[in-house]
Each structure stands twice: as structure tokens, then as C-alpha cells.
Design a protein that fits this description.
- This protein is α/β, with parallel strands linked by helices.
- Helix content is 30%, strand content 23%.
- The protein has ten helices and twelve strands.
- The strands form two sheets. An eight-stranded mixed beta sheet has the order 6-7-8-3-9-10-12-11, sandwiched between helices. Strands 2-1-4-5 form a four-stranded antiparallel beta sheet.
- The longest helix has 18 residues, at 183-200.
């Protein structure tokens, strides 16, 4: 499968009163065309910031992003506008991401007009294309002139999906697209997204904090902690054999649907490292039961422990755990 996205040592820092907040720090990965890379981690670990930095909705502090071999961060304004046709985003909150003054039709038509695919005067062409996209996203035609506040969360998110797919993109950042929805609606949206991926050959970067969701939809999973990548592996392998202590603790928190089966919960103790001007060393060390002084003296390097299974853990790399 051909590589569609390559991210190399991506960084995004934000200035704060006490220094620089390291929201994303030295992230590297690749995604093959037609595949889904899931990104998980606690709230505030930098998942959404990373997704937006890849699209340059946040301008990265450092690193490289290549889309189909093209250097995204070296592009000018016109090149970026053209690239928007191929790289899109689905936001977490479908209500906040929609203009309350726009009808369903207007919201879906907006990117078509902005990108110059249709003239505002070509109302028949726009209407035809909007209806095609609504069918693709599972939206009833009777909703074409309704407003966001008249719809439930599931239908609003379908509008968000329809708007993202209006330009026929190849790559979509899905920023927690189902976390604001009821469980039954989540399943419908996930099935829709998988059907669209198969039909259109889409590639997803799927950001979520729901471990059951990420296992269901992802080919590979990347685990983040305080702006850094701690583990990356195929989905099944990560759940069967998590290697990093943080990943192990994260997966141990998944509820077991059996009242007679005891949970082997790993409780993380200790102080959370500040992401503002972080010191050298493993950022999980203060909460890690295996950490030694050596873990705080050097930055962690990403190593391949098994084929396709990458981990940043000094003690694991030395074979001590």
C-alpha cells in the first residue's frame, strides 16, 4: 500500500506566561493510503493539536509533514488552498463547527463555492451536488433547508462529515467525531465512516479517547502522553501485548462486561509532569512504577521492539522489564 502521509519530528509549542507549553513534541509516523491510524491518550495530551498542526490549522513550531510526497509546511497560501481539497477535518462538536445562520444546503455548498468548483450563480449545479453528498452521508433530502439547532447531534455530525467530503478529499483528520454522541448514534456514525472509507478510498487520522472505538476502527494505533508518542503498533497487537507502562495502565481501565471477572486495574500514582518547559527525560517517569533515575536523565528514543511495534521506554529497551 502506498504511503500517503509522513510526519517527521512534528512540534507545536504555545507561549505561556512561564515559558513554552510543549503541546506536541517530536512526533513521527506514516499512514498508508486507505488505512486508519488511531490516536489515543488522556485529555490534554496533544492529540487534537497534532491533527490540526498536520493540516496547518495550527502552524507547527518545527518538523516536517509530507502529503503524497509534497512538503505541506513549505507551501504558500495558494498551494494550501488547493491542498484543502485533498486534506479535510471532521470536528468534535458538530454544533460548534456549524454556522447557525446556514442551512444544511448552505453549509455543504460553502466549500464548493470557496474552492471555485461551482459559481454562486450555478444554483442548479450546487443543489444537485449537495443532494448527492447528503445521500452519501445518510441525510434525508427533507432536511436540506433546516438549520443546525433544529437537528439532533447525530444529524449535525453527518452534516460535518458531508461538508468534509464535499471536495472529494483523500485524507481526513477525524477529531473525536463521535465523543459528543449517544452510544447508539456513535455506532451509526462509525459504520458510515467505514462505509465511506471503503467506497471512496479515504485515509483517516482518527483521534479519540475511547479505547473501544479506536480498536474497532483503526488499523494502527498511536498512544500519546503529554505531547509525545510512547507507543505505536497494529491495533490487535497493541491490545494483546501493550508494552509501554502508560499503555498498560490505559488499557487496564477498560470496563469488563462481566461482573464475575475481576479487573486488573493499574492505578497511576504520582505527580503529572508539567508540559511547560519540560525537563529532560521520560515525561511519564513520575507516575511509572518501573522508573529509575536513568529515566529522568535522557530523552526517550522510539525503538522497534517487535516488527511494527514501536515503544519509547528506556527500561524496556534495555530488557529490564
Amino acid at each position: 500500500m502506498a504511503e500517503i502521509l509522513r510526519v517527521e519530528h512534528l512540534q507545536k509549542y504555545f507561549p505561556v506566561p512561564d515559558g513554552m507549553l510543549h503541546a506536541v513534541d517530536d512526533i513521527s509516523f506514516t499512514i498508508d493510503a486507505g488505512k486508519t491510524l488511531g490516536v489515543v491518550g488522556e485529555s490534554g495530551c496533544g492529540k487534537s493539536t497534532m491533527g490540526r498542526a498536520i493540516l496547518r490549522l495550527h502552524e507547527p513550531t518545527g518538523g516536517k509533514v509530507f502529503f503524497q510526497g509534497r512538503d505541506v509546511l513549505a507551501m504558500g497560501a495558494q498551494e494550501m488552498k488547493e491542498l484543502r481539497r485533498e486534506m479535510q477535518i471532521i470536528f468534535q462538536d458538530p454544533f460548534a463547527s456549524l454556522n447557525p445562520r446556514m442551512t444544511v444546503s448552505e453549509a455543504i455548498a460553502a466549500p464548493l463555492i470557496v474552492q471555485g468548483l461551482y459559481s454562486r450563480k450555478d444554483k442548479a449545479g450546487i443543489n444537485k451536488r449537495v443532494r448527492e453528498i447528503m445521500d452519501m452521508a445518510g441525510l434525508a433530502q427533507r432536511l436540506i433547508n433546516t438549520y443546525p439547532h433544529e437537528l439532533d447531534g447525530g444529524r449535525r455530525q453527518r452534516i460535518g462529515i458531508a461538508r468534509a467530503l464535499a471536495l472529494n478529499p483523500k485524507f481526513v483528520v477525524c477529531d473525536e467525531p463521535v465523543s459528543a454522541l449517544d452510544v447508539s448514534i456513535q455506532a451509526q456514525i462509525l459504520n458510515l465512516m467505514q462505509d465511506l472509507q471503503d467506497e471512496l478510498g479515504l485515509t483517516y487520522l482518527f483521534i479519540t479517547h475511547d479505547l473501544s472505538v479506536v480498536k474497532y476502527i483503526s488499523n494502527d494505533i498511536l498512544v500519546m502522553y503529554l505531547g509525545q508518542m510512547v507507543e505505536k503498533a497494529p491495533a490487535e497487537k497493541l491490545f494483546e501485548k501493550p508494552m509501554h507502562p502508560y499503555t498498560q495502565a490505559l488499557l487496564s481501565a477498560i470496563p469488563v462486561p462481566d461482573p464475575d471477572r475481576p479487573m486488573s486495574r493499574i492505578t497511576m500514582k504520582g505527580e503529572i509532569t508539567s508540559p511547560v518547559n519540560p525537563e529532560k527525560g521520560c515525561r511519564f517517569a513520575k507516575r511509572c512504577p518501573y522508573a529509575t533515575a536513568a529515566c529522568t536523565r535522557q530523552d526517550m528514543a522510539l525503538t522497534e521492539q517487535e516488527p511494527g511495534h514501536f515503544v519509547t521506554c528506556l527500561r524496556l529497551q534495555k530488557g529490564e522489564i
